[in-house]
Specification:
Elements lengths: L10 E7 L13 E2 L12 E3 L11 E3 L4 E8 L6 H8 E2 L4 E2 L6 E7 L7 E7 L4 E17 L6 E8 L11 H4 L18 E7 L10 E2 L3 E7 L2 E2 L6 E2 L7 E2 L4 E2 L4 E8 L6 H7 L4 E13 L2 E17 L10 E7 L17 E6 L8
Antiparallel strand pairs: 1-2, 1-9, 3-4, 5-11, 6-8, 7-8, 8-23, 9-10, 10-11, 10-14, 12-13, 12-20, 14-19, 15-18, 16-17, 19-22, 20-21, 21-22, 21-23
Length: 355
């Protein structure tokens, strides 16, 4: 009798795919450490309600939906592909001072059509595969404490396969982690937050703010259609979605929670609709002097949505909620940034993650 499968033994790999509904084999440096997540496959079943019976004796399965999420610890290495898939624009990284450090500048694309991934997870006894999937959202969150920042990756896939001819137990033996991706998690203590008004001078040390908790939510509204072009094989074929495309404006937001409330400063800013700019920098271990692993998120235009101090007996906290907008004109210190955000990563990866 086979041994039960242990979740702790599962391994995940993600690789850039090229054509919708055509899986690619995951291999060297495609591995990614994850905390949870599994491919979901669902399809409504239409019960045969023909008269002349007291109960149904048949049903027909409809189109397949494969929407799922994966959770990781945010790390300084190995995150370039999923970040680039959401952002949509990458390019060859820039070597830093003839060292092993490379800067990846990821910009927001208005239309990431044509960008997709293959997701393959080792279930020990077999491989669970999403042949092609579209990255539709990333949420990054964290707070003061011993836990690394967490990333939730949302995807819309075409289907879940458990008997793929592309990603097999034999081919999965080639999967490895990128350099340094087995360590180097991003901690809240690594972060520096800076914020001031859009019209103020460039962000500087005097603009530091000190939240104790935060969340970045980046969601693209995307939808695929059941056009009849893609179907499962076999005696009972089911329709599969085509590649999801834009279905409205993205939903982009940031929440900050400050551990103490001492003045109506932010409530006044909300009342006056004072627009803000902000950057968040995470700095990790040194790659080569003077270059460190980094994540940098730059936001040229934030609009405060809520500022509601908590109702506590003890210390009152101050959570803030912002909508992330694009900018008509790049603010001081953010030359060229009119997109809702730019995401820069310094790592040892030497190649364009979208190539």
């Amino acid at each position: 009798m086979p041994s039960p499968i242990s979740g702790a033994q599962q391994l995940l790999a993600i690789r850039k795919a090229v054509e919708w509904n055509t899986a690619v084999a995951c291999g060297a440096t495609d591995g990614i450490l994850f905390l949870s997540g599994q491919a979901k496959r669902s399809a409504d079943v239409q019960v045969d309600e023909s008269r002349g019976r007291s109960f149904s004796i048949d049903g027909t399965a409809g189109p397949i939906d494969c929407t799922t999420s994966y959770t990781f610890n945010l790390r300084y290495a190995g995150m370039e592909l999923i970040a680039a898939m959401l952002m949509g624009i990458a390019g060859a990284p820039t070597v830093q001072g003839a060292t092993a450090a490379y800067l990846h500048l990821l910009k927001w694309s208005t239309d990431p059509y044509g960008l997709m991934i293959t997701v393959a997870k080792s279930m020990v006894a077999y491989i669970e595969e999403i042949p092609t999937a579209k990255v539709t959202g990333i949420t990054i969150s964290g707070e003061v404490g011993p836990n690394p920042l967490q990333v939730t990756l949302d995807v819309i896939g075409i289907n879940r396969e458990v008997a793929s001819a592309i990603n097999t137990l034999a081919t999965y033996a080639n999967v490895t982690l990128p350099t340094d991706a087995n360590a180097n998690p991003v901690m809240f203590s690594h972060l520096v937050f800076r914020m001031n008004n859009v019209g103020d001078i460039a962000l500087a040390a005097g603009d530091r703010i000190y939240p104790s908790k935060f969340s970045i939510s980046l969601k693209r509204k995307m939808k695929g259609e059941f056009t009849g072009e893609y179907r499962t094989t076999g005696t009972n074929p089911q329709d599969l979605s085509d590649e999801p495309s834009n279905d409205g404006f993205p939903e982009l937001g940031i929440t900050l929670e400050f551990p103490k409330h001492s003045a109506p400063t932010y409530m006044n800013a909300l009342s006056s609709d004072a627009r803000k700019k902000m950057d968040i920098t995470a700095t990790g271990a040194q790659i080569a002097a003077p270059y460190n692993y980094t994540h940098l998120w730059q936001y040229p235009h934030l609009q405060m949505k809520n500022a509601n101090p908590t109702d506590d007996n003890g210390r009152i906290k101050e959570p803030l909620e912002f909508i992330v907008h694009g900018a008509a004109v790049a603010p001081a210190g953010m030359t060229g940034i009119t997109d809702p955000l730019w995401w820069s990563i310094t790592s040892k990866r030497t190649t364009n993650p979208l190539a």
